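> run fold tRNA N6-adenosine threonylcarbamoyltransferase
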Amino acid sequence: MEKKIILSIESSCDETSAAIVINGREVLSNIIASQIDIHEKFGGVVPEVASRKHIEAVNWVVEEALKEANVTLEDIDAVAVTYGPGLVGALLVGLQYAKGLAYSLKLPLIGVNHIEGHICANFIDHKDLVPPFVSLVVSGGNTFIVHVKDYGEYEILGETRDDAAGEAFDKVARAIGLGYPGGPKIDKISKEGNEDAIKFPKAKFHEDTLDFSFSGLKSAVLNYINKKNMQGEEINRADVAASFQKSVVEVLTENVLATCEKRKINKIAIAGGVASNSYLRNNLIKEGNKIGVEILFPSLVLCTDNAAMIGSAAYFQLIKGYSSGLDLNAKPNLKLGEK
Ligand code: KG4
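> ok
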């Protein structure tokens, strides 16, 4: 197999990252400059601040990625970059940088869908993983159940009709005073709480659908907190977090396992920031075991935003002969499977 070395760049939200990846599966470097500390004091990502910080970091992460991988720009076969979905100003920073590099080095430019990148993170950690499989994509902006039919070939079978799972985690965390980003904080505090303490509604539709809805659950948590405040009662944050988390995880688990049964597939690869949730991981493994479904996760660093996953997705496009023009633009609402 011919060796292809890809330099990839990711800047869709609050992480500036560059990576060097060989043949979509071997990561030589994956440098991530996180802005979490800066956005934390605002309680969420401030888009204009994010764009400015990407500008400051992008050159540095690329230089570090080359240095750590011990390669030079002459060794690179293609430049890959996230072009959506994400914050438009943030995306444009990585995109313009990648275009400049590809043009000056006369290399193919490969625009990558960020969600596809999350799915492909699994190819890095699971060297034998090949399609078909089912993927549950759970991040700050997206919640999808996807049938991965082949490399780059996706059918969305279920999606959120309102908030993404990560967004619900972040909003509930803010409401109980845990701060941003809420997912990891809820995950942690839940370990001290009782998951059966409060009966929050399960975000389930009555129709025959694999879609999700998390806004009703989020409202139920907010109502619970308001009621307790009005009654002058203290809330037990760990119990609220654990009960909320259980509600989210049960629905994610039920829907993704139902998809496997429907499609007769016995492998699920989880992707996105929420895939690092320990309760989700344990619950999926437990329930998957009961019906013979194997559950795969990327390592924690590959769950959240990073450029290695973008380099992996780009490789499978490159070997199919796809590349982007220099007129490639940022697409903040890019859907999976859309060009
Ligand atoms: O994939 P990601 O880094 O960025 C997007 O592409 O959205 O995901 C970020 C989201 C945030 O909402 C964050 O709260 C959530 O992933 N998250 C978690 C955990 N770690 C990150 N949610 C639940 N439990 C976690 N351990």
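DSSP finds eleven helices and ten strands in the chain.
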